[in-house]
Amino acid sequence: MKKVIFSLITVFVLVSSLFVIPVSANNTFNIDIDVKIKSNGDGVVTQKWYGSFFDGTENYLPIGNFAKGMDIADFKVWDKNGEFEFVDYWDVDDSRIEKARKCGIIEEDDHYELCFGIGDYGNNEYFFQYTVKGLVGAYKDKDGFNFQFVNPGMNCYPTDVVVTIQSENGKKFNKNNCGIWAFGFRGSINFESNKIVARTSTPLENGERYVNIVVCFEKGLLNPARKGEEKSFKQLLNTAKEGSSYGYYEEKNHDFLIILAVIGAAVISIISGIFYLIISIIRKINLRKFTKKCDYYREIPCNKDMNMGFSIVDRFDLNKKESSIIGACLLDLIIKKSLVPIIDKNTSFMGKVKKTVDMKIENPPNDFSPSTELYNILVKAAGADGILQEKELKKYCKAHPSLMRDFINNTKQNGETPLEAMGPYKKNINKCSDEVKNQVSQVIGLKKYLEDFSLISERSVEEVDIWEDLLVWATLYDIAEEVMKDFKKIYPNLTERNNDYMTYIGLSYAYRNLTYSAMLSGEAAQRARSSGAGGASSLGGGGGFSGGGFGGGSR
Fold first, then answer.
1. 163 CB contacts (<8 Å, ≥6 apart)?
2. Strand order from edge to edge, sheet including 339-347
């Protein structure tokens, strides 16, 4: 009897499974969004959802949070077989069959839900279009909008999203007449062929990601019907930038009072400049007199604290290249075998030999020097394989310029702190304490010693023993190559060692220049990005948007 019951249950389960909707499957899809801006500021939005749909009876998109003067109109849906039927009253509880090839709008108190039937399960493409009346608002300084095109909290998230914004009447959108920013996702926003294009670079996930786009237009490009509620676009943008990786936007205002303020500031700037020039000349005269009194210093100054050394070098203009600290730390890491050069020579079919030098990340330094801080940055740049390639480092520093900038600034600050504890530490050497003057005298004395090395008659074995440290400090002064040439003259018997040092110095200079130029390039890109020229999107921010909501997807 038990066998019979078991057999009947098995048959029942198998038969039933033929009629069960596969609700456990997740819908996965991509979204392409095309926005055409009308002269009056309305935006015709066409969304294409394409992918695999095996769950639910309908797709839907909530849109709300409208500014005064905004609304949704002209909703329609179609696929490859034609346009869907618009239903005046949309019933969420209807079956998938009843909703097939139909669409409708649910009007709630504070938002709309744009709905359309999934129809047959499988790989599908759906197009739906709606007009956002008053998408672009007219503000007192610019015209623009902050609109949410993809909501957070969707129950199934798009893998890829592309948003294209263009003019309906052929006007060109470019960096000369527009500013662009993007929030809520990893990706980019740029001007492409007189259009604005935002792209995700990773799937939206965890119900937290969203796509908010902010665009400003120069006055006269459009004639928006919606007024921006008496606030400036600058305020709108700065609200969006809160919690983002963007800086703040400075509006260009040609108001008469602003012009007067600019003129006043220019006059003050000229007077201040003359005053500063006089002060600077006095400082240089005092430093020149102080330098003449400094004796040669044959040891590593500042108790071998490179932080203090760099602070003094920077404050008293002993070397105007702030990148020298990068080169000094690189040479220090190479000498300590924390960075091991990997030289590779490749011959092209034309017979040209191209040499590439990568760095293998090995023994980490065991101190708290700036070299250790730089080492930690290089580890991140090298990635999982532990091999630091030139292109890899350049790309990393350009993408994360603040890391290298913070390294330089932190090194200065870490040197200033102990010096300031010794008493007054001023740019005018005459106003510094005696203890600070002693440290400055050591740093200047070593520089004089290294510069005059070939002229000094005294020689000792001890100099060779500390030569590696001296070379690191010579790099801090940006005189390492010249000093090394003098060293080779004095110690010609150390040929192999000398050649190694020359190679190490050349590598430290090359990687220093690469790193620093990539940092400057990254900083310039960030300034342009923050001012609206386009670039990487921000994961955070985007607040204060008009149009958008929470949730959506399939149900």
1. 33, 35, 149, 196, 197, 198, 199, 211, 213
2. 339-347, 353-361, 387-388
Exposure on the CB side of residue 156, measured as CA atoms within 13 A: 23
Which single residue is written with the structure tokens 């630091």? 388
DSSP state of 548: B
Residues 6+ apart with CB under 8 A from 537: 182, 183, 184, 185, 186, 187, 188, 189, 198
Dihedrals phi, psi of 34, to nearest 5 degrees: -115, 125
* Both structure tokens of 229: 């509620």
Contact 66, 148 (CB under 8 A): no
Q: What is the pLDDT of residues 124-149, one digit of tens each?
A: 999 999 999 999 999 999 999 999 99
- Residue 214's nearest CA partner among 537, 552, 523, 550 is 537
pLDDT digits (tens, 9 = 90+) for 445-499: 999 999 887 776 555 544 555 788 999 999 999 999 888 888 777 777 766 677 8
- Give which of 122, 163, 210, 212 is closest to 552, Cα–Cα: 210
Q: Starting from the edge strand earliest in sequence, which strands make up the sheet with 161-167, in order? A: 82-83, 71-79, 122-133, 43-53, 28-37, 161-167, 195-200, 187-192, 535-536
Helices (H) and strands (E) in the chain, counts: 14, 22
Residues 6+ apart with CB under 8 A from 401: 518, 519, 520, 521, 522, 523, 526
Task: Give yes or no for a contact between 552 and 65, defined as CB atoms under 8 angstroms apart.
Answer: no
- Tell me if 27 sits within 8 A of 156, measured CB to CB: yes
Please check whether the domain covering 28-249 is classified as CATH 3.40.1050: no
